[in-house]
Design brief:
Length: 90
């Protein structure tokens, strides 16, 4: 069999082109995944801030309920304040 170096070079160039294309696709996927990660991290941070804000508002509300308890309060008010104190302990 006669070996033709030009055919071998053409075959190798085709493989190099294929590998370069695969590398570019992989690079684009990495960039896409990184941007998705950043978007999701932003959503997670916003969700966490929202939860913390709601939690703070809930604690302020429970503290306001507890502050309404006086020695002269009726049984209903005392029960509600007890429930609020228990909720703050959780």
């Amino acid at each position: 069999m006669i070996w033709n170096p030009w055919k071998e070079i053409k075959r190798l160039r085709g493989q190099v082109d294929l590998y370069n294309e695969m590398a570019m696709d992989a690079g684009q996927k990495v960039v896409f995944l990184q941007s998705d990660k950043e978007v999701l991290q932003g959503k997670i941070d916003a969700f966490y801030a929202s939860i913390m804000d709601r939690n703070d508002k809930l604690l302020i509300g429970l503290q306001a309920i507890i502050a309404e308890e006086k020695p002269t309060s009726n049984a209903t008010v005392k029960r509600i304040c007890k429930i609020a104190r228990e909720a703050m302990d959780i």
